[in-house]
Write a structure and sequence with these properties.
Order of helices and strands: EEHHEEEE
Distance between the termini: 45 Å
Structural class: alpha+beta
Radius of gyration: 20 Å
Helix content: 25-40%
Number of helices: 2
Shape: elongated
Number of strands: 6
Length: 133
């Protein structure tokens, strides 16, 4: 998705433009709408393969640290095995991946989340009752 910076250049106040559908979906929608579910399934398979690759990298790691960024922005970095840092910056109510660097990093602070209040999680769909008893 394309992003537009505000005049002050603040990453936290970016607006998102509507996402354009991938070419394959637009083509199938016009020419073979019955194949759209197959294309959707295929995109899920591709995403699952990417998730499996990410899992393999994280599973091989012996240490993962998280550090807030101190450059005045709202962001953090994940450091894998004290050698690779993945950078994330706030964009609205979430974080966007912004790239990586390779180098040598110090151990992180394992108490980083000690003062963060614990939020209640929303119950999973299968835990919600069907209706009034």
């Amino acid at each position: 998705m394309a992003k537009q910076d505000t005049e002050d250049g603040d990453r936290g106040n970016q607006t998102e433009e509507p996402a354009e559908s991938p070419f394959l979906f637009r083509f199938l929608e016009r020419n073979a709408p019955k194949l759209l579910p197959l294309a959707g399934w295929l995109s899920l398979v591709i995403f699952e393969r990417d998730a499996e690759k990410l899992h393999a990298v994280l599973d091989r790691s012996s240490r993962i640290d998280i550090e807030p960024l101190s450059a005045g922005g709202r962001g953090f970095r994940l450091i894998i095995d004290r050698r690779t840092a993945l950078y994330f910056y706030q964009d609205g109510d979430g974080f966007d991946y912004d790239g990586y660097e390779v180098g040598e990093y110090d151990k992180g602070d394992v108490t980083i989340f000690d003062d963060v209040p614990i939020r209640q999680h929303v119950a999973a769909i299968d835990e919600v009752p069907d209706g009034p008893a």
